[in-house]
Amino acid sequence: MTRQHSSQAFWIVAPRSGGIRDESVTVADDDSVGIRALYSGISHGTESLVWQARIPVSQQTRMRAPFQAGEFPAPVKYGYASVGVVESGAEALIGQTVFCLYPHQRRYTVPLAAAHPLPAGLPPERAVLAANVETALNICWDAEPRAGERISVIGAGVVGALAAALCAEIPGTEVELVDINPDRHALAAPLGVAFATPDAARPDNDRVIHASASESGLALALRIAADEAMLIEASWFGDHPPQVPLGEAFHSRRLTLRASQVGQLAPVMRPRWDHGRRMRKALELLAHRAHWDCLIDGETAFDDLPATMDSIVTRPGLCHRIKY
To answer: Against a cut of 0.90, is the pTM above it?
Structure first.
């Protein structure tokens, strides 16, 4: 008989309503690890759409998280940014702190390959950003920025800010982060990029990354791209069909509009990379960039999540950390 022990997890029980449920967790063996969560992170973008039941029926299979339980719209256990300590299972990892694409849950068991040890120098408090860094890395691969280019990133959420920061590390690039919230100016200096509100956004960019999930942001992205420039659509609009202004000069300027989505690796990288290698690189990047801590905007106790989740994901924010 398979042995089990108890745990607790946060579930979305109905649109914009959540609760903590008891869970039965399989005891780890030599091919798995039992993890005690220290922190998890809330993604404002996707988790906001899941919380509000805005996942289109056509995309519900694609949008499943790796260890999701239940079905959209609810009840569903969702999330993908957990950091914890290995307590049991594969002896080589016992005592190590790991990142896992797991929902918000106190204790859980996963296959050995799903637990990614944190590299030296990466505090668990910062490691909750790993899934966002992985997404930003994939966006940069899709965007293919080059040394010396003028690059604009529209939308200073966590993913947009991280994409801007990665682009800024390429020699000679001139990166501008654009957001409707002037308070996001405070992110620009730590990340090594310039900042502008939409009315002051720089024109004639070689590459534009759109990450605001708004029609106005997408229209701005098309407007400030230089002739024959590349525009990467990194937002996901969920069940909202956005109006895309492809008239006027879109064709005569020969713009390229390309989608980026983290579920698949960028085509140019697929022959040599897999999801595990990409995650290891994301963790490595996080370990050496303490200034990315500015992208975590607060912390909430796990037990308080049912009462606070709605305010966390329905207001503008960055990464919100859950403490266990």
So the answer is: yes
